[in-house]
User: Fold this.
Amino acid sequence: MSDTGPGADAGPDFDAMTRDIAEVPAVEVITTVAVHLMSAAAVKLGLAEDGAAHKDLDEARKLITALAGLVTAGAAEVGTYHAAPLRDGLKSLQLAFREASEHPDEPGKGPGEAYTGPVFG
Assistant:
């Protein structure tokens, strides 16, 4: 038997594989983006397996700052239930950045601290 019939080369049905973005609640979009930023920052901080190979503090700083802006601006919109773990994750990344830096920023000068205020361990 051959696969030369109608639709054989149509490829995957992406509409069936994904949800329509209109159906996704804003809270879910915001938290998903935040988790992606957290994951990327953790990798750039060298916290992933084989971490040293991916460590790039300049990139980590950008990701953490973007995350801080999103978490700070979105906290009122997503509510305390969702915002609290995002804030905790952000603070952990900010502290990890300070630890990973050869010359740590002063409190209040680290990535995202313009949005969150100084972060202390």
The mean pLDDT is 89.
